[in-house]
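new request in #modeling-help
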Amino acid sequence: MKRNTERPLTPAVLHILLVLADDQRHGYGIMQEVETLSAGRVRLGPGTLYRSLQELLERGWIEEREADDGADPRRRTYRLSRGGRTALRAELDRLAALVDAARARDLLRRPGTEGRA
Amino acid sequence: MKDSRAERVVLALQRRLLGLAPRAFREHFGEELLACARDSLREARRRRGTAAALARGVRQAADIGLNALRLRGEGDPVRTSLMLLPFVLLLALGTAWIDAGQDEVQPAVLLLFVGAATFAFLDSARAWLWWLVLGLSIPGARLWMDLHGSSAYQGPFLATFLAFLPAGLGALTGLALRRASPRPPGPGAVT
């Protein structure tokens, strides 16, 4: 497996890639879905969102598509590219390894055991 | 439901702050970004009322302004510095004016520290310049007043150069915060 030498993704970028993993969305849709996915813990401001989208486009991790004819021309949609999916998986692998390490040190309860003594 | 007057003011502020971003970014994302911000504000109004909508609008405006400046700093550092310089000069003059009218040094020290930290964070490449300008604010004011026969400042002239200390500490703090802040590909969530 190729070693991931990228710096860890920030919460904003990680969540954007996550919500684009299953469907293409426009900017406001990304903003809403990130808030839903994170249960309100991550809220993207529009400046943060579009600066991230620009960077992700430059990296080739997402692709943009102009709005359909007749639709609001400002409603561009974005979708995950193959490179973005690879980057997302690498980051999730890294996080999963961290969670496993935390569980091995008994720092995390397994799901379904919360509240037990 | 139409936007209230206050909401229209906030939306106009957002548009103004977007003007700080590089032209290429504005041309590509500008209208879409503003539409997104407007939709979010209206959703907040629908769910929690006008006050909540305005609060979100103000937070979004800050988010837009901050990211616009960061984009500007990433793209054209010289222009960013030129944009910030008038604000630094204004702060230097304000600090000197406040210091001349006070017996206590704490307000001026605080302004120098926070000001240098802020500008060094926004434009770390010119942290030395912000330190220099702000550090010279008090000696410069002292020199000006002495030349014009004012007795607002007491004590040795060299003591005014102590202003370089809080300005320097502030600049270093701003630099450290900038280096510790998340790097591209993604800024952190703001609101």
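bot summary: Chain A has a mean pLDDT of 86.
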